[in-house]
Specification:
By secondary structure, the chain is of the alpha/beta class. It contains four helices and ten strands; from the N terminus they run ββββαβαβαβαβββ. The mean pLDDT is 98.
């Protein structure tokens, strides 16, 4: 099986959500500086780079990232393409052939800019009705190549999250995937967030396997 890493590299140039703290790396010890070893300190937002949103992101008592079963995060998934430069509508979701799969990744034109350091407020995201359609179709894990599953406009952006993540204790959103080299089709998904106890989100390493 061939594996494709669809996680963004974490650097000081990796795009971050406006208002969130920047990713910073600080040398605590340095061989070049005369120390016996290299040790670094890393500071970042829990939603920096490729990351996972758990229900707790928008549900006060919702499931945290470390409580999501591995069976949700590992298994078959389908990648589909939305080529339009407009929000993903409900009828697109309703018309998808999911083959009974509960893990879905949506590739859009976002993949052309996701590695840029500039934040694009007009990124492609779901409409609230599309989020409802995903829930109705029993999608439990949704991955997108944009900064968020919801639009930058706060009201709709929050509504999309509340609809999808609030639909059940094992709902998961993967955001900021790099799907630029991934063709539509079926893959084996491995999505492993850092095991941050009790938190609503965490950076994740996400892999797609193809025979």
């Amino acid at each position: 099986m061939k594996w494709i890493d669809v996680s963004l590299p974490m650097t000081a140039q990796t795009v971050h959500w406006p208002g969130h703290p920047r990713y910073t790396v600080t040398d605590m010890m340095s061989i070049a500086g005369g120390d016996a070893m290299n040790v670094t300190s890393v500071a970042m937002c829990s939603h920096f780079g490729t990351h996972m949103d758990a229900p707790r992101h928008y549900v006060a008592s919702g499931t945290a990232v470390d409580e999501i079963p591995l069976e949700v995060l590992i298994g078959p998934c389908r990648v589909v393409d939305w080529p339009e430069r407009e929000p993903i509508p409900a009828d697109f979701v309703a018309g998808l052939d999911l083959g009974g799969l509960t893990r879905l990744l949506i590739r859009t034109v976002n993949s052309r800019v996701i590695r840029q350091s500039e934040f694009h407020e007009d990124y492609i995201a779901l409409t609230p009705d599309a989020a409802r359609a995903l829930v109705a179709r029993n999608v439990r894990l949704l991955g997108v190549d944009g900064y968020s599953i919801g639009p930058f406009e706060p009201t709709s952006g929050m509504e999309v999250h509340r609809i999808f993540l609030g639909a059940g204790p094992e709902q998961v959103a993967l955001e900021e995937l790099d799907l630029s080299t991934v063709a539509p089709g079926d893959y084996q998904l491995v999505a492993l967030p850092i095991r941050l106890t009790g938190l609503e989100g965490a950076p994740a390493r996400v892999l797609l396997g193809v025979a």
